[in-house]
């Protein structure tokens, strides 16, 4: 299927590799992740056009029909220019928008202040992945409850399976055996490599770990990984976007998604 957005195109690729199913209806793509029904952005509708007046109700009905048991609602727009359409209707219906910057690089710059105290390597043991799970909970922006813990377990299991199947690598910065910072880099097999979940433990922030780790993974991706283009999706309001720009990533497009949490 043809997807214009580089952000969503790489999202759907990785979801499908991880066991999600895609169904193209023409007007929208249905994305399902049976193994993790609580994963909002693994169970959503991706529309090909912005929201015209009246579309919010129509698209809510579409979602309820496609996902009758879902407690959330998640709708994306396959756009590159950030045009939403009838945003006032989305807001009135209780949706929260997520406008991310899709960034690309075909080369990377050296960090200005690299961290040389830590060890940088792949995650390669059960203990490494268990530390990644605990780190993911510690860095979560959502309330961590039993449902979120289960969601995180399932999501990381799918990501580890992608790594085990040879679709990418998960990198970590370590102090001895203790995980400090981590990220994934997944490959599409035709020259694109997509970053996943750049995160640093709260007690290890401000030491240049994420910057150094992104550079380390980028260098691997553009050499041994065989990628020609690196793709990073970033929150425009979060300070990490400055790290990516300092390493040579440039803004390419805007990725739009709208979610309505459980009542």
Automatic annotation (TrEMBL):
Source taxon at top rank: Bacteria
Residues of the N-acetyltransferase domain: 118-263
Pfam families tied to this protein: FR47 (PF08445)
Lineage: Bacteria, Bacillati, Actinomycetota, Actinomycetes, Propionibacteriales
Family annotation (InterPro entries): Acyl_CoA_acyltransferase, GCN5-like_dom, GNAT_dom
Listed name of the protein: FR47-like protein
């Amino acid at each position: 299927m043809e997807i214009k957005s580089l952000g969503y195109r790489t999202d759907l690729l990785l979801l499908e590799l991880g066991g999600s199913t895609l169904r193209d209806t023409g007007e929208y793509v249905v994305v399902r992740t049976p193994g993790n029904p609580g994963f909002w952005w693994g169970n959503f509708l991706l529309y090909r056009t912005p929201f015209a007046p009246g579309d919010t109700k129509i698209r809510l009905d579409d979602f309820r029909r496609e996902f009758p048991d879902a407690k959330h609602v998640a709708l994306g727009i396959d756009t590159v220019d950030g045009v939403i359409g009838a945003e006032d209707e989305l807001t009135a219906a209780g949706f929260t928008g997520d406008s991310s910057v899709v960034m690309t690089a075909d080369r990377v710059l050296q960090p200005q202040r690299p961290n040389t105290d830590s060890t940088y390597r792949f995650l390669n043991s059960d203990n490494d992945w268990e530390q990644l799970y605990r780190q993911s909970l510690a860095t979560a922006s959502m309330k961590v409850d039993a449902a979120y813990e289960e969601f995180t377990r399932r999501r990381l299991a799918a990501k580890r399976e992608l790594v085990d199947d040879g679709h990418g690598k998960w990198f970590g910065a370590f102090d001895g055996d203790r995980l400090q910072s981590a990220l994934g880099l997944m490959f599409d097999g035709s020259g694109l490599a997509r970053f996943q979940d750049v995160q640093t433990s709260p007690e290890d922030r401000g030491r240049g770990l994420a910057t150094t780790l992104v550079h380390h993974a980028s260098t691997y991706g553009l050499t041994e990984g065989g990628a020609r283009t690196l793709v990073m999706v970033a929150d425009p309001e979060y300070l990490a976007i400055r790290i990516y720009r300092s390493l040579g990533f440039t803004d390419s497009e805007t990725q739009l998604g709208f979610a309505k949490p459980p009542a």
